[in-house]
Amino acid sequence: MSKGKVLVTGASGYIAGYVVKALIADGWSVSGTIRSLAKADAVRASLGLTADQLPLTAADLTSDAGWAEATAGCDFVQHIASPLPTGVVKTDDDLIVPARDGALRLLRAAKTAGVKRVVMTSSVAAMYYGMTGQHQTYTEADWSNLTSPATGAYAKSKTIAERAARDWIAAEGGGMEYCTINPALVLGPVLGNDFSGSLLVITKMLNGELPGLPAISFGICDVRDIAAAHLSAMTTPGIDGGRFLCSGEYLSMADVAAILKSRLADKAKRVPTMKLPNFLVRVSALFDAQVKLVLPELGRTRVGDASHARAVIGWNPRPVAETIVDTARSLIAAGLVKS
Ligand code: NAP
């Protein structure tokens, strides 16, 4: 017998795919939303599921249509859909409006449907950006500074959406519970050819598309462990309002390249070894808007403290080298890396 009914929004997405699989494996009845039903067969095929196992409803974050139908009869919602850009966006609102208004549409529909708890995928991007001074270690107490020019469009969209959702819950939630998972950079095996922008860093390294290694570092987490965090946040009692920063080890691009080189030998032959001096990256940024996006990260340290997630929802991430190697092997197996 099913444990209950869960809606996963943005079921076509990378993290959502793993959340769907983890929920079904744990005995839940799962349904999903996607922007257009034209993608339904491909989404189910990538997850190895039938239409009975994964009913899908069309719902776009920018429109009211579909949200009432999608949430009807659900006990829980995993709200994961939100735009994740792979490059420069035209205006900040291209990300902010769907992220914020979509979260509010989902919350209103969920409350009407009598949903018990909504788990929303926020991000460390809602915590890490625009601080003054030498802020280096981040926790759930931190919020990105929306007035700083160092806070980019994506970080703004995640910060504004999470704040708007929390404000709405406080004012209108009427007892519906809410918490967020705030992951760092999510890597791990791909489920199909349509994978998240977060994997581009590994794909570009393996394909020899990076001239060298800029002095940029990030916390890494595994998509399988992030799916587990979403499940725990849905079922752990007494965590209404919780905010869970999920970040594994903090590695530089040079560390990631070294892991790929040492574990994949010839398959990592295009992975660069040369470290790029900061001045060269700054000069490149004058001509390349994508490089400009990473300038605020040059030489910065942003370590996420995941001890709250470990203690409260039992988050227990695997070693990051395993994640990096599994990511690379799956990209190679999917034919997404030059041979
Ligand atoms: P993804 O594969 O690009 O998934 C994004 C999902 O959002 C897709 O299903 C996409 O639908 C959907 N979406 C985007 N705009 C939409 C709209 N206007 N209406 C309806 N659906 C829309 O990326 P992901 O890595 O799985 O990201 C999922 C969530 O995790 C996002 O909230 C992201 O901010 C968060 N997150 C990701 C990372 C990371 O490193 N990957 C880290 C922290 C937080 P389509 O398939 O139709 O485009």
Give the overall shape, derived from the CA principal axes.
globular
Name of the CATH first level: Alpha Beta
**Beta content:** 5-15%
CATH superfamily: NAD(P)-binding Rossmann-like Domain
Query: Which fold name corresponds to the CATH topology?
Result: Rossmann fold
Under the CATH scheme, the architecture is: 3-Layer(aba) Sandwich
- Uncertain segments are none
- Global Rg: 20 Å
The portion of residues assigned to helices is 25-40%
Tally of individual domains: 1
Give the structural class: alpha/beta
Distance between the termini: 46 Å
Task: Give me the strand/helix succession.
Answer: EHEHEHEHEEHEEHEHEEHHHEHH
Helix tally equals: 12
Q: Ligands bound here?
A: NADP nicotinamide-adenine-dinucleotide phosphate
Whole-number mean pLDDT: 94
Major β-sheet profile: 7 strands, parallel
How do the strands of the widest beta sheet line up side by side? 3-2-1-4-5-7-10
Descriptive keywords:
40% helix, globular, 12 strands, 339 residues, alpha/beta, Rossmann fold, three-stranded mixed sheet, 14% strand, single chain, binds NADP nicotinamide-adenine-dinucleotide phosphate
Short description:
40% of the residues lie in helices and 14% in strands.
Which secondary structure elements does this structure contain, and how are they paired or packed?
Elements lengths: L4 E4 L5 H12 L3 E6 L5 H8 L8 E3 L8 H5 L4 E4 L13 H21 L3 E5 L15 E2 L14 H20 L4 E7 L1 E3 L12 H7 L10 E6 H13 L7 E4 L3 E3 H12 L13 H10 L1 H6 L8 E2 L2 H6 L7 H14 L6
Parallel strand pairs: 1-2, 1-4, 2-3, 4-5, 5-7, 6-12, 7-10, 8-9
Antiparallel strand pairs: 9-11
This protein binds NADP nicotinamide-adenine-dinucleotide phosphate (NAP).
